[in-house]
C-alpha cells in the first residue's frame, strides 16, 4: 500500500475498535487488523459496568447495546461453599446512569467493529500483523491474511495503537515475551447456559479451591459462567479422567459452591466450553515511541472484578482524546512523546486501584482458609460486598463527556 495512514490499530476487540472509531470520527485515516473472523466467541465475563454506558452513547451504540444485552445488573453476590450472600451494586455517583449489563462478545465486538468501519476505518479481517518496523518517523507493518490466499502485504502508518491483548505470542515490539510455566498460572474457561435459576440482576463472585469465577445473565435469556483455575489444580482435575477440561472444572465448582449447584440444577449448556490462557495480570505501560498500548496490552486486571471490557474501552477513550488534541496542536514529535507520558499517567490514575483490588480479591478467593475466616464477617455485614465492588471500579467514572 502506498498510502500512509494516520494510525494503525492492531486488534479489533473492544479496545481496538473503540480507539479506531474515535480517531476516525476525529478525521484520522485509520487502518485496523483483526486476526479472527467475526462473530466469534471469546473467554470473557461479558459484563460492562455502568461507567461504560456514557462511552457507548458517544460511540452511537448505547441504544443497540441496551436492546441486545441481558437484564440490568444491580446486585453483587458471593457463592462460597454453602454461603450465598447478596448486596447492592454501587451506581456511579452524580450521574443518572442505568445499571451495567452483559452482552456476549460475539455480539459486542461485531457491533463495535461494524461501527468503526461505518466511520471510515479500513478493516482487514482476518489478518495478523507479523512484523513492525520504524523508519523515517512512521511504521511499516507486514501483515498476513488468514483467508485461503494467505496474502502478505505492507501497511504504513504514522503511529500504532496496540490492542492485541496479552495472551498471544508474537514478535511485535508491543508484545511481551511470556515466561516459564508456573503452578500458579491461571487458565480461563467460559460457557453459556440456558434455563438457569440464577436470579436476574445478580452477579455473584464464585469462590472455590484453586480458582474463582462469576456468573451473569447476558443476551438471549442465557447465563454466562466464566472462571479462572490454577494450572496445578486443573492438572489434578484432569487426572481424574472421564471428562473434558471444561466439564472437570464445572464439576469442581459445583462441588465447592452450593449457589452454583442450585443455579445450574435445571440448566443446559449451550455450545462448547471455551478455554484460554494463562492470563497475564499486571501493568505493561508505557509503549515504544509511536506505539500506544490499550486494553490488556496496556494492563490486565484479574477477571475477579469483572472490569476487563470496561477498562479496555475506557483506556482507548483516554488515549484517543490525547491523540486528537496532539494533532490539533500541530502533531510535533516532542508532543507525541508527551502524549505517551500523559496517557500512561492517566491510565494509572484511572485503573491502578482496580488492578490492586483484583489482585487482593483473587488471592483471597483462592485461599479456602482465608475465605472461611471472612465468611462470618460477611454474613453480619453484607454491605462489605458493595464496598468491594466500589473499590474494584464499579462506580468510578472515567469518561467525562
- What are the low-pLDDT stretches, counting only 5+ consecutive residues below 50? none
C-alpha termini separation: 37 Å
What is the CA-based Rg, rounded? Answer: 21 Å
Number of helices: 11
Number of strands: 18
Q: CATH H level of the domain at 4-43 and 102-175 and 280-375: which superfamily?
A: FAD/NAD(P)-binding domain
Range of strand content: 25-35%
* Residues in helices, as a percent range: 25-40%
Which whole number gives the mean pLDDT?
A: 93
Tell me the CATH architecture of the domain at 4-43 and 102-175 and 280-375: 3-Layer(bba) Sandwich
- Derived from helix and strand composition plus strand pairing, the structural class reads alpha/beta
- CATH class of the domain at 4-43 and 102-175 and 280-375, named Alpha Beta
| Apparent shape | globular
Question: Main sheet, how many strands, which sense, barrel?
Answer: 7 strands, mixed
N to C succession of SSEs: EHEEHHEEEHEEEEEEEEHHHEEEEHHHH
State the CATH topology of the domain at 4-43 and 102-175 and 280-375.
Answer: FAD/NAD(P)-binding domain
Task: Explain what you see.
The protein is of the alpha/beta class and 401 residues long. It has a domain at 4-43 and 102-175 and 280-375: FAD/NAD(P)-binding domain. Helices cover 36% and strands 26% of the residues. It is built from eleven helices and 18 strands. It has helices at residues 14-25, 53-59, 62-68, 105-118, 231-239, 245-256, 258-263, 308-328, 333-365, 368-380, 383-391, and strands spanning 4-10, 30-33, 47-48, 75-80, 83-88, 101-102, 122-124, 127-135, 138-145, 152-162, 186-194, 202-208, 211-217, 222-230, 268-276, 282-283, 291-293, 299-300. Strands 1, 2, 7, 8, 9, 10 and 17 form a seven-stranded mixed β-sheet that branches. Strand 9 (138-145) and strand 10 form a beta hairpin. Helix 1 (14-25) packs parallel to helix 4 and helix 1 packs parallel to helix 8 (308-328). The chain starts with a strand and ends in a 10-residue tail after the last helix. 48% of the residues are buried.
Amino acid at each position: 500500500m502506498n498510502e500512509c495512514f494516520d494510525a494503525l490499530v492492531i486488534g479489533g476487540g473492544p479496545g481496538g475498535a473503540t480507539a479506531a472509531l474515535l480517531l476516525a470520527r476525529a478525521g484520522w485515516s485509520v487502518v485496523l487488523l483483526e486476526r479472527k473472523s467475526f462473530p466469534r466467541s471469546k473467554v470473557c465475563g461479558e459484563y460492562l459496568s455502568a461507567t461504560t454506558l456514557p462511552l457507548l452513547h458517544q460511540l452511537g451504540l448505547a441504544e443497540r447495546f441496551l436492546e441486545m444485552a441481558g437484564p440490568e445488573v444491580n446486585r453483587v453476590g458471593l457463592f462460597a461453599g454453602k454461603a450465598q450472600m447478596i448486596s447492592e451494586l454501587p451506581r456511579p455517583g452524580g450521574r443518572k446512569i442505568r445499571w451495567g449489563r452483559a452482552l456476549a462478545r460475539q455480539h459486542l465486538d461485531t457491533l463495535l467493529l461494524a461501527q468503526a468501519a461505518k466511520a471510515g476505518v479500513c478493516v482487514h479481517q482476518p489478518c495478523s500483523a507479523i512484523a513492525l518496523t520504524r523508519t523515517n518517523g512512521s511504521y511499516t507493518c507486514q501483515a498476513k491474511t488468514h483467508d485461503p490466499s494467505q496474502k502478505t502485504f505492507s501497511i504504513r502508518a504514522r503511529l500504532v495503537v496496540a490492542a492485541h491483548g496479552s495472551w498471544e505470542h508474537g514478535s511485535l515490539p508491543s508484545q511481551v515475551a511470556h515466561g516459564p510455566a508456573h503452578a500458579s498460572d491461571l487458565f480461563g474457561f467460559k460457557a453459556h447456559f440456558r434455563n438457569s435459576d440464577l436470579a436476574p440482576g445478580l452477579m455473584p463472585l464464585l469462590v472455590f479451591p484453586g480458582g474463582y469465577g462469576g456468573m451473569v445473565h447476558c443476551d438471549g435469556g442465557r447465563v454466562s459462567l466464566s472462571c479462572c483455575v490454577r494450572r496445578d489444580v486443573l492438572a489434578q482435575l484432569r487426572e481424574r479422567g472421564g471428562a473434558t477440561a471444561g466439564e472437570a472444572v464445572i464439576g469442581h465448582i459445583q462441588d465447592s459452591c452450593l449457589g452454583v449447584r442450585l443455579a445450574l440444577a435445571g440448566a443446559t449448556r449451550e455450545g462448547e466450553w471455551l478455554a484460554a490462557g494463562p492470563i497475564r495480570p499486571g501493568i505493561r505501560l508505557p509503549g515504544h515511541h509511536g506505539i500506544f498500548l490499550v486494553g490488556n496490552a496496556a494492563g490486565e486486571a484479574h477477571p475477579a472484578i469483572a472490569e476487563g471490557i470496561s477498562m479496555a474501552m475506557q483506556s482507548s477513550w483516554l488515549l484517543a482524546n490525547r491523540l486528537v488534541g496532539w494533532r490539533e496542536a500541530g502533531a510535533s514529535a516532542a508532543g507525541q512523546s508527551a502524549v505517551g507520558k500523559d496517557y500512561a499517567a492517566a491510565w494509572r490514575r484511572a485503573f491502578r486501584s482496580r488492578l490492586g483490588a483484583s489482585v487482593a480479591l483473587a488471592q483471597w478467593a483462592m485461599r479456602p482458609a482465608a475465605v472461611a475466616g471472612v465468611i462470618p464477617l460477611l454474613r453480619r455485614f453484607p454491605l462489605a460486598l458493595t464496598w468491594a465492588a466500589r473499590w474494584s471500579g464499579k462506580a468510578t467514572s472515567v469518561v467525562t463527556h
